Amino acid sequence: MKVSTGILTLLLCSITFPSLAAAKQSELTCKAQAITEANKLLAFYRDNDDRAEVDKDVTALAKMQNPENKSQYYDVLQTWGYIYKGKYRMRFIFFNDCTLMGEEILEYANP
Most buried by CB count within 10 Å: which residue of 23, 35, 74, 81? Predict the structure, then answer.
C-alpha cells in the first residue's frame, strides 16, 4: 500500500506537534483597540514622527495561552505601521474583554 508523502508529512506533524494542529484562531472583537494601540505604540517608538501611518487592516493570529493560567487564552492581533520608508509589524495581545496584556513592534529592514 502506497501512502502519499504529503499525507504522511501532515500526519507526522499533527502527531509530533499537537499544539499546531489544535491552534485556535483569535477573534477580531478588539480590532478597534488594536488600531488605537498601534497608533500609540508607533508614536512612542519613533518619537511622535508626524509621518507615521497605521494600516487599518488587522489580522487575527493564533490564540496564545496565558502562561500563568493554562485554561485561559489571549487573542493576538497584528497590524502594520509605516513611517516614510520604514515598515513596522505590530502585534497586540488582548484578554477576552479587550484588556491589553502585551504588545510588540518589529521594524522590517534589511540593514
Answer: 81
Question: Residue 22 pLDDT more than 80?
Answer: no
- Identify the sign of the CA torsion 68, 74, 80, 82: negative
Torsion of CA 66, 69, 73, 76, to 10 degrees: -20
Which three three-digit cell numbers place residue 15?
502527531
What is the b/e burial string over 50-76, where b = at least 16 CB atoms within 10 angstroms of the residue's CB? eebebbeebebeebbeeeeeeeebbbb
Model confidence, pTM: 0.77
Q: Count CB atoms within 10 A of the CB of residue 38.
A: 26
Q: What are the extents of the domains in the chain?
A: 30-107
Asked if pLDDT for residue 48 goes beyond 80, the answer is yes
Helices in 1-111 by DSSP H: which ranges? 5-16, 18-21, 31-45
Residue 109: name the closest of 87, 90, 94 by CA.
87
